[in-house]
Amino acid sequence: MASTADASTEKTPAQLLAEQHAAHHATVEEVPDEEDVAHPPPSHSAEGEATPNTATNGIMSTKAAGKQKEKPSVLDTHDEEAFPSLGPAPKAATATQAPGWGSKGSLKTSASPALSGTSTPGRPASRDPAAGAVNLPSANRDYIDVRKEDINKAAPIQKVLADAKKKYRVNTGMQEISAGQAHRFFAEGPQRAQVRQALLDISKAVSLEKDIKIQIPASVSSSIIGRAGANIKKWEAQHGVRINIKRDPRGPSNDPTDPRIDVVEVKGDSASVNDVEYKIAAIVKENQPKVALPLRDFAPEFYPFLAGRHAADMQKLQQDNDLNINIPQYHTWQAQPPPRPVASGRPQFVPHGDSHIMLSGEQEQVMQAKAQLEALKQQLEQELMLEELTCEQVLHPYIVGPRGMDPLEFLEQTGCAIILPPGHEETDDIHIVGPADRIEDGRNLAEQLMAQKYNRPVDLTKQFANAPQGPERHSRALAQYLQRKALERDFMSQHNSEIVFPQHVNAAPSWSVISSDQQKAVSAKNDLMKIAQAFPTSRIQLVDMDPFYHPHIGDMYSQQLQDEHGVFMVVPDNEDGPVVLVYEGPAQEGPFSLPRQRPTSPEQQEFERALQAAQQYLLGAIPSQQISASEIPVPRKHHDRVRRHVRNEQERASAPFPVQIDFGEPRAQRPRGQQQAPENISLRGPSESDIEALRKSIEQFLIEVEQDEKERDYTTECPFPQKFVKNLVGKNGANVKALREKHDVEIDTREDGKVKIQGPQKKAEACKAEIIRLGKQYEDEVSYTIKVDPKFHGELIGKSGENLNKLQNKVNKEVRIDFPRVSRTGDVADNVSEAGGPQARQAPDEIRIRGPRAKADKVRDELLSLTQYLQDNSYSATVSVHKDQIRSLIGRGGAELERLRGETGAQIDVPNKPEGERVTVTIKGPKASVDKAKQEIASKSKAFDAVVTQTITVDRKHHRDLIGSKGSNIQKIVQQAGGPERSAEAVQFPKQGEDSSTLTVRGTRDVVDKIVASINSFVEDKDSQVTETIDVPVDQHRLLIGTAGNIRRSIEEKFSVALDIPRRESGKTGVKVAGRPDGVAQAKEHILSLTKQPEGTTIMVPRSVHHTVANDGRFFRDLSRQGIKVDHKGQQPPRKPAANGSAARKANNAAAPLITDDPSQEQLFAFDIVSLNDDAEGETGEIPWVLIGNRDVTEDNIAKVQRQIEEAIEAAQEPRHIGYLRLADPSLHRHVIGSRGATINSIRKKTNCDIQVPGGNKSQNDGEEITIIGVEDMVQLAKDLILEEVERAGN
């Protein structure tokens, strides 16, 4: 008789069993053994009642049972005869998944159809008694369910029940279930064996014979058979059936592509056959193979289309077959690029790479899903085309990916997939894959995405051309440093731009600045170039060393290099490349700010000295650049143990450079087809002795491990307080796992009040001792809850948990400190969370402390002490200020706010982005400091609130005069009104280019009124003013200006006028006076009085001898000292002849007198004579000399000067020459001058020549010549007399 399973919405016992196991997550660390759980006795069920959907055939723990409704059990599931073992504990399964191996919802059999409404024949959907059942002491109750179609209609059912009752002395009965589609036969009696035998006789008598064949995976057959056929024998004895298994001759296979099938044949009465079928189905469900099949024949270019366009198909395929389909993301090729486009025909997409589609699930469902995916692959092969585009490689990440569009969104919009090259490939090619009619859409969107970003390359090759190790390495080193300084983050916030540094050592050394705004990209590039120029080659040092040292030197030497040398160290993350040293300078408060100025030469020399010292220190700190290596064979099964052993050994040794141990490449990371590497581990280190010592330690450890394996059966136990088991286990079993690894033992905590330990005797006893110690420690443990205002929690925890970590380190991290979750953020939560399971809800103001009494007391006292300190110094107050006052409160660069903080000692917080008209300023600190700061801010707020704003209209033509030179006029008006120091704070003029005549005046009412009145008065004066011009000779303009303009300002202030005095070089004589008529008149009268010239004596001097008579201006200076001024009535003096030094000689083309450089020639002087009459030949006419004396000069004085001038004119008209005498030793000039000028005056008197002698002791130049002016013969005589004095001084 054949039967097949029909799909049904009603859950089968196997499904319910799977659900219970899936929901039951008991762990060995927290749940006692089920064998030790005392189950209640069976109970009776009320006649005619059954609840098919509440079955519970599985073994349930006390924890899980506590979640169920309290219902008496109807079957002792620990009775091996009544319910044989189904093999190992079931794994969690999907609740809706039907039992059996094959298509979903069915078990492959050749038996009769199952009962309508169930999906599996055999056991009913319910084994719970009906509600209201009565429990009979010492009574056993059980039942069997038989489908209506399986009942032998010829059987006398009532007689069968009566016979069984009589024969076995049990109560029997029958009821309809499942809406009359089945009958339930039950028996109840004092002895379980009699109840079971009675039901077996009833089943044989009332049900038809049945023969089914069940297909099962060959790998599950051994679990069905049991050890030495135990399961088969038991079922045949219990149910009176015959079971035969036909094995696949090929045996089991782990290859999902080659399933092996065995067939189980069961014969007997229908009820018993169904019962056995149910048990087989349960075992198959538990043990059937789960396979993971990689699809290696799929080209990765198909992945986006399967995950995107066919996403619904994939979802349905998973749901229908209870599968997991993992399709790798593919928008960047790895092993090889997509195929090249072809001129005609379709591209040949070929499978490549190690990333494959993975199907996971039951074997047959996996194979069916593979077939459906193969069909989709063929469809894609006929449909997809390919096009190649070119795009700057640096822009690739902005097309699709984390920084660009989502690849599936690109596919959704265009129907195409875009494939980028990996970052390490130097190529600009990208590929568009899609249907022929959508390729253009893909190309257009890709080009649109490319155009959204602006790339500004930064090539530093020229800038670092003199780098000792090449510009490329220097550029990469600087990039590494700037990345450590989070420059990318700063540029994103400052410029809204990204910096792309070289991603690997083989990449191009150039950098790129990427932005959506072209201007910001340019600005960011300029800023980056400034930073680069601040880090020349002298500021960066590259230190090559074996990568062995890289993991150690960062923690060991970074801080010391920073403190002692001002050098920041960058250690490569990938252990490839040199160590980078960058000079930053001495430590300073706050974070280091990247410089943007090119350093000077002395600064660069300082960089080099510091870097050289840092390099010498670093290289001197490491033992040797030579790294030794060795290998040792270690079986793979012991790798984890050896790894822990080495870690423990090195922790105890605390060597600065411990030997590195490499266990080779894991299986999953080896290329496909590569043979497994030998079971060797490699040791590397700078010391051969350390390597040898570790080798011997590992070898000895392996001997111990092998010995331990022989002693694994040793078991010991120790008492342990049950209430502390969770502490022993830890969160997610972390503590007990650490104990297992530390002692290499197995630990069982399931039994109340007892811990079992299994492993090598020595290690098990050591673990036992530690567990006993922990138990005593937990016994000494106390718990405190302290109340602390939540506003202090953040400061108690500290930044990133800093304060909390310090506190826990003081007590060796043996005390647990729990802050409320509402006050935790990110890193802090990790510092305060540990194991312990569910806890009572923690109030927001509670801090919980738990640990050993003494240390918990210490933590509590410190927290309370710190809280008290915070309370004493956390007095707070607020002041409301107008939002426009924020700027003045902060001051330029925050100076005003810092001043206020420093003077008051309070913390003052001003909102960065004020909202609304009023802003709240928060003040914190000690009470006195807060009160002082509050008083000052409140005073400023009150004053600011009293500020009024008034606008006035002033014709734009007056704005410039109203402002005055450099703002002097408006500043004076504001200050006189009592306004601020900066006039711009009180009076605001229209902005440049703005067509407005409105001025805004701000301040207190009295200040505003005064300023407005002053401005109105100023404007009124300007509107009523007149302008007059006074003719003042140019040489007298200085009389109106004075020193630094003091006379001019005095006139303007005294008469309230404005003077416009022409520039001297203009030659204009008109001085304009503007102001009120009365003021202009008074100023004019005053100016005329200043410039009025007294009458003087006029002498007409020929222009040709003007400069000779004036003696190069010395005559005028002498007269000025006598109180006599010479005026020329506005005439320009004649051109001054070249009468001094080399200029005179050059004018006359005369050769300069030279002193030989030959030391053998002792020439003591050089002399040259030039005629002065040649200089005056071009001048004709006369120039007036008006002699004007002050009040102290008499007429006799004027007459005397007049005679001197006339005599000088007469003498100057005679032929005159000038001689230039240069002595080899200028220090001899003092002998020519003589004591108080006696010698030179004597020579002047004898020769009637004007002789000028410069001072001695100066370097030789044109100014060192002695000049002699007079008649030619007398000039020669004067020269001779001077040389005689020089010769006399030499002797």
TrEMBL record:
Record field: compositional bias (Basic and acidic residues): 67-81
Extent of Polar residues compositional bias: 1-12, 51-60, 106-121
InterPro entries, sorted: KH_dom, KH_dom_type_1, KH_dom_type_1_sf, SCP160-like_KH
Keyword Repeat carried by entry: yes
PROSITE patterns the UniProt entry points to: KH_TYPE_1 (PS50084)
Region (Disordered), start-end ranges: 1-136, 647-689, 1124-1148
Coiled coil: 359-390
Protein name, entry field: K Homology domain-containing protein
